[in-house]
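Morning F.,

Quick status update on the modeling queue. The single chain you submitted on Monday has been processed. Sequence for confirmation:
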Amino acid sequence: MAHASSTAQEFLRIPDSELDDLFRRSPAGRIPVGDGEGTFIIAPASPVAAAAASLARRVAWQGKIFDSGTGTLRNKVGPLGTPAIAAKVYYGPSRFDANEAIILDYSGTSRVARWIRDEIREVAPGVFLGMVYWSNHRILKFALDFTHAKGDGPTPYQSAVTVRAPLRPGTSAEALQELARLQSAAPPITGIFDALQNVHFARVLVIPDGEDLSGRPIPASLVYAADVDGPARRHLHDLGTAGAEFTDSVFRHCEGFPQAPAAGARLAWLRRHQVRTGAYYVNTVGRGVQQVRGEAHLHEALEDILDQRRNELGVLPPAQIHRILRDEIRSRTDLAFALSRARSLPLLRRYSEKARLAAVLLLLIAFSPVLVIAVVGGLLAIRWREIRDWVATERPDPAAVRILRAQEDSPTANPFAAFGVIKAGRLRQASTIVAVWSLDAAARHVFNRGSLAGVTSIHFARWVFLDEHRRMAFLSIYDGSLESYMDDFIDKVAWGLNAVFSNGQGYPRTRFLLLDGARNEQAFKNYLRRHQLTVPLRYSAYPQLTAVNIENNARIRQGLTRELDDKEAQLWLARL
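Structure tokens below.
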């Protein structure tokens, strides 16, 4: 590198002309990955440089987060370092000297900063010097330091965002056609989610009109569902601002959606139509989009190194190969994050979850005598009704099944959506609420590390009550074929399916809520098919990765964080 001892703070003491020379002498370097700490260089080598940089960091800008999977970045803006203002990242000629630099281009990704263009070069391992251009005028310098970056971005927790709104009468078919058009558009309108860098999956579907058990009509509605890193309110804000084009296109057929809305009106409408999630399952809590993409990039890079050096490495013992690969990773700015463990959830978040679990357990213990009586009495009452319940026996419509199959059975990340009417009576409604609440507690505190009661092919799943608990929707993202997905559930957790879904109208007959039901395999599969919906618009942040791939990539990274002996290294190499 041109200036191997350079650090971001040292740049503040170097005269502006010397910084120009340093930038001119330096190579572009590798495009960085992950979270870079930023420093504005204002009046360098002057008495105010350090104070100005500190003030700018506290109130305006804290750095940039690079996503190798999409070739984009987001700036960390404001006192909280909120990810915002996206840019495309690529190599190109510098406006400063026409030599190669890494270009950070805002013209096609940000309305606010569309006149801005940054250029960076790697002046020391993991340290970049940058220039800011307003149109063709150079206005500022900055530094980015990745020497302490882990590549994962801010440590996130995952949230389910669900927005549901009634469609205007007679527009269901038009809405479905519009969603299909948006799915096939080039460039895809879902590209906004690549720029946001915090959306795992998103999908939009239409629930047809119908009636509840009392005959009351329920209008057709449009549902948007996303699995995101961070709080739901931030994602709604993103939809209302950066995602305005997507939001306006998707919801334009909905009742009351404002025409040509301002950002505030759009956001207010989204908040009014947000639906609370009854239960939410996350494959691995705390594993964010940037971590998933970064670890996939790491796996690919390691395979490339092994391919390029196969003859040299093939004769070495496993532990030595592992050491050589670690040294290779350490030398690369875009991969050095892998030598550190992935960030864990924030301490406050972890303790709040533990406190919630402790409170639940204490309440269960305190009220256990009452609960035992209530459960036994409830099961007996449900059993009396089960004997008389109506059970649907018709087969699903073959034409509808053909349409559904056209969107299924991808090896990775298939969206599943189904909804149904809850059986009449307060007992059934109460039973469903308790079952969903219990499922949510189990997903939060037990099934949060890659398996839902033994089913490992699910990325995310949610259960959502609709229409004042008269109906319920189930939405998930799963890998492989629907047939194997249903078989997994039936074989490993049929009792859980019964607990949640047997309160649905027409469900296969159960005993004491938990027995039989889904064990009648064909009847259960027919039931799901009859209630399944097409998902015409969908997005995946990592469409080539299964849940098992993602876990394997995480373990590859984990194996780089320390030295391994020959036996451990052999097992680690087998993951590649």
